[in-house]
Amino acid sequence: DAGVTQSPTHLIKTRGQHVTLRCSPISGHKSVSWYQQVLGQGPQFIFQYYEKEERGRGNFPDRFSARQFPNYSSELNVNALLLGDSALYLCASSLAQYEQYFGPGTRLTVT
Amino acid sequence: AQSVTQPDIHITVSEGASLELRCNYSYGATPYLFWYVQSPGQGLQLLLKYFSGDTLVQGIKGFEAEFKRSQSSFNLRKPSVHWSDAAEYFCAVGSFSGGYNKLIFGAGTRLAVHP
After folding, report:
1. Nearest residue on chain A to B90, judged by CA atoms?
2. CB of A102 within 8 A of CB of B43?
3. Distance (Å, rounded) from C-alpha A6 to C-alpha A100?
4. B17, B35, B51, B103: which could form a disulfide with B47 (CB 3.0–4.6 Å)?
């Protein structure tokens, strides 16, 4: 079975630009969560979507937004990029409460 | 506030030696606890989880963890480490509030294995 997939693998952007990251959950999983992992730290929760609705949001500015599509795939959008947004962005899908399966991540570098 | 502490930032062991990675959590209710492993440049792989029941849980790759409520700990153990176990290990607690659940992670422990 295919696991969680994310695209692109790597991305380099300039400050002030906008970026869109994509995630496809495991087949049958209806919940998708996004996490940001800054180098040397543990992942930090950004969003959770379930059945196309935002269920929860972490302590991130409004420059961060997301959506979930009818096929349960998801996009994470970040506007007005800052140097501090450089990180590994992880997507996780889940079927049962709490048990989350992570994708390989998208490495975003902002210059 | 809910939190996870991994006291050891970096641990080095010899191949074949035993391993214990420490994790302490702060959570008001019965915790759901997880250990994940991350190889360089990779995503997170679930090693094991504790939801309820037997406090000693078995995971993949020969890892086990023991939940100790009195100590608010969930330490990860392996009797004999292999070179391929070198990676970063994250302990996490599941938090449910406001109608959604999320994982709260510790800062991680980087494991190096000497031949």
Report:
1. A42
2. yes
3. 15
4. B35
